[in-house]
Structure formats: C-alpha cells, structure tokens
Design brief:
single chain, about 270 residues, alpha/beta, 8-stranded mixed β-sheet, 11 helices, 8 strands, about 40% helix
Length: about 270
C-alpha cells in the first residue's frame, strides 16, 4: 500500500504490474481491495493503480465532518490522476465509482485516454428516459436510507444484508465469501456519508458531453436499476462500446474475473 497527497488527504492505493496506467475506482462499501480478483488479468498489460477513496479503508472513519460528498471524491480522483505519469491514463470505475469516473471524464477529458464504466451508479433524470417496457425498479437510495437506520441502531450485519440484497436479490448475502463480507464491514460507516453526498442525476447533456472512448460493462444476471442505467448511458455517449459478462451480477469482476479482464483488456489495447 502507498499513499498520495491529494487535496489535503493521504489517498491510499495499490499498484501492480507494468505498462500504461489504469486507475481503478471502487464503489459503495469498497476500497482498493475491490479489484483484487482482476489484478492478475489486468496487470499483464497495464500498471493497475487501485485507489481507496476518502474515508474508506484503510482509514477507519467515524462518520464526522462534511467532506463525504460526490464532488469531493470526484475532485480527489482528478487530483490523484493529475499526479500519475505518463499521462493520459485509462480510468475504470464500478457502481458509485463508475459515477465518479463519469464525472471526471465529463470535467477533465484531457486527463483520460479511455474510460471503463462497470454498471455506474446513480439516477437518470427526465431527459434520459428508460426504454418503453422497462420494469419499474425501486430506487437504491431508499435501501441506503434503511441501511443507515439499521447501522445507527447497531445492526451492522442487517445494514449490509439489506443493501447487498437490494442489488443482488434476496438470499444473496449468505453466498458472499468471508473476505468480501469483511471488506464491506470495514467500510460500513461510509453509509452515513451517502445520505447527504449530493449526487446529481445523469442528464442527456452530461452523456453527450463525454468525448473519451468509453466501454460500459454490465452483468448478464444483474437486476434492478443498475441493469438499465448503463444501457441508457451507452446510447447517448458518442461511440460507446458495450460488453455483458454472462452469468454475473453487479460485482461481475469477482464472479467472472477472467471474462471481465478479457473484456477490459480488449477495449484498452491499442
């Protein structure tokens, strides 16, 4: 583990492999360990740099302060990338980290060569309607609120199960490997920050503004809103490529690391 000073914060990261830099951003309850399962495949061709966002493990945050904001995390990742050489870099984000990566590409395309968004999180505004016939999905934000209530009541396991099964379905929590569960537990306090992180919805203008060559990846077994958002964004990002990882859900890189690594490597080559 190493750290880099960004915006007054020591941002932790792991670096593996040699080649052009690929900066990886985790999602909700993740950290630099999120990408462990694909470090092998991806580091064959790239210098993989996996970051931990402000207030995530290895920091043990107590939930205080007002700097757990989407804008702060975007600013931190931007400042981090500014210090990575050679430039420009490839940037990959998953879930909430996909939202961060999207915003970095929107604001600072000069820093990026290519962009990979793995089921980016967030909401679509009225200018990005879902295709007709798409099933209505309950917003994940409501699950987060409920998990925060459970966390404040001392029910850590219940908070995590509620959130995870809101994405992967009822009964999925018991199938999560012990190491992956521990990573989520290590970051459970960050739930408190997400209630007021001021995340803006994606707009059509936002998507049209992305000029970085982009790959959007989804799990073939993902359900709910996360299975739809990336497809809508792909329709509005100029020249976007898409890939589906068969028989995998939202954490597709853990469930099918070789297939995921192959899709990303193929997109990034050249």
């Amino acid at each position: 583990m190493q750290t880099l000073r960004v915006n007054g914060y020591d941002m932790a990261y792991l670096e593996v492999g040699q080649g052009p830099p690929l900066v990886c951003v985790h999602g909700t309850l993740g950290d630099f360990r999120t990408w462990y399962s694909v470090l092998g495949p991806l580091s064959k061709k790239h210098r993989v740099i996996s970051v931990s966002l402000r207030h995530f493990f290895p920091e043990h945050w107590n939930g205080s302060g007002d700097d757990y904001k989407m804008a702060q995390h975007v600013a931190d990742v931007t400042a981090f990338i500014e210090q990575v050489k050679p430039a420009p870099v490839d940037l990959m984000g998953h879930s909430r980290g996909g939202h961060i990566a999207f915003r970095v590409a929107q604001a600072r395309p000069d820093l990026l060569r290519k962009l990979v968004l793995a089921e980016p999180g967030g909401d679509l505004d009225a200018t990005l309607p879902l295709p007709e016939g798409t099933p209505a999905h309950p917003p994940l934000g409501a699950r987060t609120v409920r998990s925060v209530e459970m966390l404040r009541a001392g029910d850590i396991e219940g908070a995590l199960q509620n959130f995870f099964e809101g994405i992967e379905g009822d009964g999925s929590w018991r199938r999560v490997p012990a190491a992956a569960k521990q990573q989520l537990r290590d970051n459970v306090v960050t739930f408190l920050g997400q209630i007021n992180e001021q995340r803006k919805p994606y707009t059509r203008a936002d998507a049209l503004a992305i000029r970085t060559p982009t790959l959007l990846i989804g799990g073939g077994a993902t359900t709910g809103s996360l299975s739809a958002i990336w497809r809508v964004l792909a329709e509005h990002i100029a020249g976007a490529k898409t890939a589906v990882i068969p028989n995998a859900g939202h954490w597709m890189f853990e469930q099918a690391p070789q297939a995921y690594g192959d899709a990303v490597t193929e997109f990034l080559k050249g």
